[in-house]
Amino acid sequence: MQRIERRVPNGIVEGECDERFLGLVDEFVENFDSRGEVGASCAITIDGKTVVDIWGGRTAAEGPAWGRDTVSVVFSCTKGAQALTAHMAADRGLLDLDAPVAKYWPEFATNGKEEARVSMMLDHSVGLPHVKPLLAPGAVYDYDYMCDLLARHEPFWKPGTRNGYHGISCSWTVAPLVHKTTGKRMGQFFQDEVARPLGIDFWIGTPDSVEPRIAPMIAMVPPTERPSRLVAAALADRESPPALFLFNGGGFDPNSRAGHAAEIGAGNGISNARGLAGLYAPLANGGALNGRRYVGAETLTRMSQVSVATHEDATLMIPTRFSLGYMKSMDNRRLENSESCSVIMSAPAFGHVGAGGSIGFADPECRMSFGYSMNKMGFGILLNDRGQSLVDAAYKALGYRTNAGGVWTH
User: Residue 227: its pLDDT value, please?
Assistant: First the structure.
């Protein structure tokens, strides 16, 4: 491992890196030099061992330096952590992913959701991409209220017949099943059974003691010349899933203490690149790490397989591909008006992007786990050029040749 220390316009990039990944360090520095990065971290493990652990920039435009232990909201990267808790419950025989939701949550089986299955909660096909009632400020911080609202809500489509990204609503469909089958709230189960055993900084429901380490998120300023496909659909129909997803947020503030303390399994996890790479390290290595099993081989196989795919996601308005709880490689580079609407990994890889461009994933083929977090949010639905350039550099370092076919291949 080489010690890294590079000057960037707003500070220093530092950390450690295996010499094979020096090209990735160059891209990380370039993010600060020419792609608008403010503060960020990137980490990679191979065979469960750290090969990249770098960070740099500032926690705010004029703020303190981004340090080794700085953390930030990783938005929908949290979904990967939440999904793992459901798969762990399934692996232990507590939760049957093929069973009707009613087996565990009878109150949910109403208003057209009577035949909904557990797997549909994970792959965005259960028909609850958002809620129709206008959410009062702070509503999304009230776990019990939101669970009850989703349980009573009529689906937008017959569960299982199509898919649309459940951008925040899966916080109150997946997590209750973990709670009901393990006896622990999902966030606590994650902390006890995943984060603490792995020794990673990752919280879903963050304690007050962590607040001084949290870098505030810098909002993305959307372009004005042409709305994205998502925004255009939302403006055309204010009662559509895209509109409700964008404009009915229930007062969530990623820079507030309430926003950090709540348990929102779809989007308010707090971590950094080391935590994201650490989360996926056992999943890149057969489901176990350092003598502790998190999931077995059969469960891991199911986690990585495409469960749903569509030419037009009912929420995001782009082609999407999901396994049970995770994103698969999505190549929308040739789609009109789809800038930053792709995430290119290898075919076996699975993970999750977060709003603004963070990402964590596992690649069982090359036994790699990857994490990238930042505080300045970028444009687009999936990865922007900052995150994708790092993913690309990682695959190139491992001898992968091209992603022209939509996935990285040798």
Answer: 84
